[in-house]
Design brief:
Layout lengths: L2 H12 L5 H8 L3 H13 L21 E9 L8 H8 L4 E6 L6 E7 L2 H12 L5 E8 L5 E2 L2 E2 L14
Antiparallel strand pairs: 1-3, 1-4, 2-3, 5-6
């Protein structure tokens, strides 16, 4: 991967909605070169998709529950953790799976409609996988920052200053 491709990736990672002409202008290349570079990176699966980051707590009644689950597994001979991770990421509730260093082997991010639904996923689907030894579930109570974007607004402090 050359420097121009890295520059392109950094630009669209920060803002995937940038128009091709704007990206080309920022990089100092033609629009056609930009289009070809994007298509090449998509074809090579370097660019996997484009998504928006939504603050679901603003003006919606969505009650989704997000949980991070630490999973200790027994790796499979010849394939390590890959087959276990693949089995886990195929569940529709699973949003992300990461191989981790430390006490637990995998970190699994899931979304459900309620804490009970997440609990059912862990007890009926995740824990029943042969290679899974143990799990620890952490529920996300509030997001402050995600993918570099701050969720909380700078609210003016309306408390009265009290001094001795």
């Amino acid at each position: 991967m050359d420097a121009k491709e890295r520059e392109l990736l950094q630009l669209i990672e920060k803002n995937g909605r940038l128009e091709t002409a704007t990206v080309a202008r920022l990089m100092g290349i033609s629009e056609e070169e930009t289009i070809q570079m994007i298509e090449k990176l998509e074809h090579e699966k370097v660019i996997l998709g484009y998504s928006a980051i939504i603050n679901w707590t603003k003006g919606t009644d969505e009650g989704a529950v997000t949980a991070m689950i630490d999973v200790k597994v027994t790796p499979k001979r010849g394939v390590g953790f890959d087959k276990v991770a693949e089995r886990i990421y195929r569940f529709p509730e699973v949003k992300a799976v990461y191989l981790m260093s430390g006490v637990y082997d995998l970190s699994v991010s899931i979304e459900g409609k309620s804490m009970a639904e997440v609990g059912r996923f862990v007890s009926e689907k995740l824990s029943t996988i042969d290679s899974v030894i143990s799990t620890t579930t952490h529920f996300i109570l509030k997001k402050y920052k995600h993918d570099g974007l701050v969720f909380s607004e700078d609210e003016e402090d309306k408390r009265i200053v009290v001094s001795p």
